[in-house]
Design goal:
- By secondary structure, this protein is of the alpha+beta class.
- Helix content is 36%, strand content 23%.
- The protein folds into 2 domains: 52 residues, GTP Cyclohydrolase I, Chain A, domain 1 (Orthogonal Bundle), CATH 1.10.286.10; 134 residues, GTP cyclohydrolase I, C-terminal domain/NADPH-dependent 7-cyano-7-deazaguanine reductase, N-terminal domain (GTP Cyclohydrolase I, domain 2).
- Strands 5-2-3-6-7 form a 5-stranded mixed sheet, sandwiched between helices.
- Helix 1 packs across helix 2 and helix 4 packs antiparallel against helix 5.
- It is flat and about 60 Å long.
- The protein binds zinc ion.
- The site of zinc ion (ZN) has 6 residues, from loops.
């Protein structure tokens, strides 16, 4: 997996207490408020740069996480080769084109070869990639690839259904329509029966994805 590099002008150097230094980020939000015609000094906005900076650190905290750390000690040897499915994982991410949220559900399945991964960790993998600037297709694919690499299963299937505020708020998308993406690896890609089983278990017909 490629290491992420932060742009040069955003210095994430930590303060003495180990938290990131948000000074520059707060200045940028202050500037943004002015640029959209707001008065950054008015009562309701005085603390907004601080809040926004903190929120953005959190929403993009996936950059600071690594798969190795996340899955450390979470892999178990088993003799089990039935499909494992974690359904309805809530995801919240930010589209990299508009910096607006997209959100929805992810369903992740795999067929173990001789290792399984803690169920809560499956959701954490989704969260790690969601808390970065994303496009839904890449998010879906990164989750599948990561599980494939870490668990070395017979196959992995990931389906993501999400709604994008950048489309909904601007009226580009009908209010209730969702974008569906999928990534199928190994047996999920090569064996229509496996794929079919997964898709029907998550309430999707294969021709609908
Ligand atoms: Zn967008």
């Amino acid at each position: 997996m490629a290491l992420h590099h932060l742009p040069d002008d955003i210095d994430p150097k930590a303060t003495e207490d180990g938290r990131p230094d948000n000074t520059r980020l707060e200045e940028l939000v202050h500037e943004l408020l002015g640029q959209i015609g707001e008065d950054p000094q008015r009562d309701g906005l005085v603390n907004t740069p601080r809040r926004v900076a903190t929120a953005w650190r959190d929403l993009t905290s996936g950059y600071d996480m690594s798969v190795d750390e996340l899955l450390n000690d979470a892999l178990f040897d088993v003799a089990y080769d039935e499909m494992v499915i974690v359904k309805d994982i809530e995801i919240f991410s930010l589209c990299e084109h508009h910096l607006l949220p997209f959100f929805g559900k992810m369903h992740i399945a795999y067929i173990p070869r001789n290792k399984v991964i803690g169920l809560s960790k499956v959701a954490r993998v989704a969260d790690m990639f969601a808390r970065r600037l994303q496009v839904q297709e890449r998010l879906t694919h990164q989750v599948a690839e990561t599980i494939q690499k870490a668990v070395d299963p017979i196959g992995v299937g990931v389906v993501c259904e999400a709604r994008h505020l950048c489309m909904m708020m601007r009226g580009v998308e009908k209010q209730h329509s969702a974008t569906i993406t999928s990534s199928m690896l190994g047996d999920f890609r090569d064996n229509p029966k496996t794929r079919e089983e997964f898709l029907s278990l998550v309430g999707r017909r294969s021709n609908g994805v």
